[in-house]
Amino acid sequence: MKLIDRRKLARLLVIQEISQRQLASDIGWKSHSYLGRLLRGEVDTLEPEAALRIAERLKVGVDDLFVPRVSTHSAQPARRRSAA
Predict the structure, then answer these.
(1) How far are the Cα atoms of 64, 77, 78 from residue 81, in angstroms, in the given order?
(2) How distant, in Å, are the alpha carbons of 2, 42, 69, 70, 78 from that of 75?
(3) Which residue from 15, 16, 33, 73 puts its CA 20 to 30 A from 6's CA?
(4) Taking the domains of the chain in order of start, what are their residue ranges?
């Protein structure tokens, strides 16, 4: 999943008075470092299960914070059949 707006995630943490460490712990991460990287904009993707846990912990819809990751690999084009 891709984080839509890191500032929105940061605002939710401030409004709900939740630290990065607390959120990371609440969603089952051993460290808060990846969450910090998300908030700084160094990375913007994470696994769907983690995105869901973050949204549930912050009491928002997962689609309020994340969108599905779009693959950069397109499907192979369909082969043309010869008109024989």
Answers:
(1) 44, 12, 9
(2) 21, 29, 15, 12, 9
(3) 73
(4) 2-67
Answer for the pair 57, 1: CB distance below 8 angstroms, yes or no.
Answer: no
Distance of alpha carbon 26 from the chain centroid: 16
In the chain, the amino acid numbered 30 is K
CATH architecture of the domain with residue range 2-67: Orthogonal Bundle (1.10)
Dump pLDDT digits (tens) for 15-42.
Answer: 999 999 999 999 999 999 999 999 999 9
Distance CA 39, CA 41 (A): 5
Under a CB-based contact definition with an 8 Å cutoff, are residues 14 and 75 in contact? Answer: no
Per the CB < 8 A criterion, the answer to whether 12 and 61 are in contact is: no
Give dist(CA 32, CA 24) in Å, integer: 5
